[in-house]
Amino acid sequence: MCLAGCIPLGTPVVSEVSPAQAEAINGDVFVVRKGDTLYSIAWRAGKDYKTLAQINGIKTPFVIYPGQRLRLEAAPETKVAPPPASVQSSTGRSGSAKGTETRTTTVAPAAQVKTKPKPKAQVSTAAVTGKKPPRQPAKSSKRTPLVWVRPIKQNPSVGFGNGSKGWDYQVRGKIRMRSASAGQVVYAGNGIAGYERLVIVKHSGNLLSAYSFNGRILVNEQQLVRTGQSLAELTSRNSNNQKVHFELRRDGEPINPKSLIKPG
Fold first, then answer.
1. pTM, 2 dp
2. What pLDDT, in 10s, does the model give residues 224-253?
3. Which of 62, 75, 93, 100 could form a disulfide with 38 if both were Cys (CB 3.0 to 4.6 A apart)?
4. Which sign, positive or negative, has the C-alpha torsion 43, 48, 49, 55?
């Protein structure tokens, strides 16, 4: 059995049979289990994955191991009291205390002071030839903005707010759930809070989307996905509606999907 993180980010088992669902994480320390990733642990604990990585000294690509103990809260800082100031007094031959020590500096004679010659002004090529130097093309720091779509082509039954951290859907019939935007799958495995499955997609350094559902996962961890690419296949069971929960988090905090996904 491989316990040393043979595959970064974990390798959860994806099957048709519903495994034990992952519970929410509470407390200050969590012991990593097989299939966990730093992203899934942070999501279940309601934390930012970058904060957890910093607390535990984990660097990219955020490889963790079964049995590893992760701190969920930073250790309290211990303040060290400054040492008491000591007053030193020195007594001269006459018995008087010297409160300060006077230092003398020797100034070199004026004749011995050498001044450095001023550097000659450099003349630019443009001033000599009368031509301006070729302009270097400016490097654009702007990234192509992400395109966002609804994970399911219908209106959510429950919107963001009033205790809801995202959108909830009631789905009937066979349907595919899609990625709300382009990114990388950082977790695909056991679900949480009444859902069999959970898929987390990383879209940027601080923005994640998550999809909780009952159905079949169609993607693998570390896979790059396009906007609108199918993540899972959902099927109603026993003529009941399928429930889906969709959530966006920035720096570990839930945000209203309407801020990125426009109607239509």
1. 0.67
2. 999 999 999 997 776 677 889 999 999 999
3. 62
4. negative
